[in-house]
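Example 3.2
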Amino acid sequence: MSAESPEPRLTDRLDLEALEPRAVHRLLVAMIENGAGRTVRVPVVVARGASEGPVVGVTAAIHGNELNGVFCIHELVRRLPVRDLVGTVVGVPIVNMPGFLTHQRDYRDGKDLNRLMPGRPRGTSSEVYAHRFVERVVRPFEYLIDLHTASFGRVNSLYIRADMSRPQTAEIARLLRPQIVVHNPGEDGTLRAAAEKLGIHAVTVEVGDPQRIQHKLVSLTRIAIRDVLERLSMLPPDRERVEREPIECARSYWVFTDTGGLLEVLPRVADRVQKGQVIARLVNEWGDPTRTYEAPEDGVVIGKSTNPVAYSGARILHLGIEGAVAP
């Protein structure tokens, strides 16, 4: 193994104080033991600056098939001028290692890790994994940027969920320059919610589609994260910028079908729609029209279904309702 690719250090938890400053460290942090009694570990890369400062965590693949964030963290760390860095950047490219290895969204027991946080120390396998990840990796963070993608059968805009009533969290969300920011307090078992309860300023970033690498979105997200580090006075400004003012939504919800059939969703992601505008059509197996769906109110399309095969109660589109949120 070359000097640029040092052997990772095995550890039971993230201990930033034990790591040498002005260096990048590769760690494998123990999470659980598998059926053979062998330890399952998550990769953690730590860029420690020359002096003390904020601790920013960037996580990805808490859903094992959401890969854009993995490559975003790789690119971010590769380009970090660690000798100019003030504070610490912690990248966790693969949170859900069991799901990642089996190409699936959920943990190996079929549970969604991002609905179980902060887990339980003595629970099911997924609950223990969630608990240990929060306690062993996340707890030292002061800021968290959690990277996701859409699920199978859907596409997303580049958008952020954040508690916009918290001024510092709202500032981070706007600095990341997505297409859309959605106010969401996050009381839903997510990693973001667990981090907020620990006093960490946390946002969820949806970066494209699952099980693929979208290089443009990866690059835009990496540049935006660098802009956050600059605003936190962790790095000097560089020339790269994402020039975009996000649309801010005070709330959002999904619109669903009331019957099944073959679904066509008409607007594109990030399109604005007006109340009464036709947003989707259903046909039956013979091609006969069975339903037309209209926008229930004015809004912006955050995400939408791309799977034409729709059962009753299928998702049509994720509608954001524009508006500001008071701190």
